[in-house]
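Our working data are protein records whose layout never changes between entries. An example says more than a description, so a record of this kind follows.
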Amino acid sequence: MSSKDELTLCKEGISNWQKAFNQQDAAGCAQQYREGAVMEARPFGVFKGRQAIQEFWQGIIDQGYADVDYSDVKWTASEKGGYILSSSWTMNKAYGVVHSEHWVIDEDGKARLEDDLFEIQGER
């Protein structure tokens, strides 16, 4: 697979995650993570595995968070394969940064998150 094709799949992955979140679909969000993924959501903690990640996103959705949007998106090829996304983000009730989302091509040919490190920096 060419690096261009790989990057296109990674961009589809983040688009799918954003659509799922904005449709208030925590299971859809979790499906964008690999089964053994690790997500660090500062200041909330570290969540390991798709089920724990889905429960985190469901809790956020249940609190009324919605309408995520990304800005200043940067993609960097990872030495481990895949691509690293960094960006700023806003939601209806909060804003912050994505320090590092490591997107890789999973066994089924779709890009999924291997690990995710983001931070809530304030309320809106």
In short: The first strand starts at residue 33 and ends at 42. The first helix runs from residue 3 to 22. The CA atoms of residues 84 and 122 lie 24 Å apart.
